[in-house]
């Protein structure tokens, strides 16, 4: 059973812990979990607090409360009357949250149940991958408001689905259902309902957690940092990460266990 975290987060963002698993919930169901500046700040604080725990956190589930939306987008009312400079400031805060999620050493699964639109899709894209219920839908509808994605959509969506498809989704602002999202590679797996969604996500993180934590963290670091780089630059990051793996006790244990034909006993160091 997950228990509330001791982290001092705003009520709109809840963090629960179940051992080494953290469940982060955006809890504004009446507003479809819209990302106001206060919510983004609270979410940033929650993620930074988890990062400070280091290897004590082996996996994170990010979700929205209420069953209608993961996050239906940024808080549109909070945008009214903003100056261009204030618009840039809001965008930077969204990017800080996304970067903090990518910077976590533990894998983060976006558990989408309902709408993941605009900033909601961008938040999900900052996670390592997306699981969703069959009732979910996705889109970057900012052009309908005279805007463009501001929390990383123009950067991360092409990486997920390819440049041409990302252009189509962003230029049209159309929504896609879970089946299409799976077909184009935006969503890794879909589930019939919320219960099976979380069961599947937990099972995946349990499988990941059986591996060497330093190796998972190194793989995430290289995957995140090499995205979008030229091949020559990206391969140097992999070479450095591969070398860093040799500095860990878990690498020595994993190789020894293979040679000795036994199961490894990883310690996370």
Automatic annotation (TrEMBL):
One of its GO terms (molecular function) is enoyl-CoA hydratase activity. GO terms for biological process: fatty acid beta-oxidation. It catalyses: a (3S)-3-hydroxyacyl-CoA = a (2E)-enoyl-CoA + H2O; a 4-saturated-(3S)-3-hydroxyacyl-CoA = a (3E)-enoyl-CoA + H2O. Transmembrane segments: none annotated. Its EC number is 4.2.1.17. It holds the Pfam family ECH_1. InterPro entries: ClpP/crotonase-like_dom_sf, Enoyl-CoA_hyd/isom_CS, Enoyl-CoA_hydra/iso, Enoyl-CoA_hydra_C. It is an enzyme of class 4 (lyase). Belongs to the enoyl-CoA hydratase/isomerase family. This is enoyl-CoA hydratase.
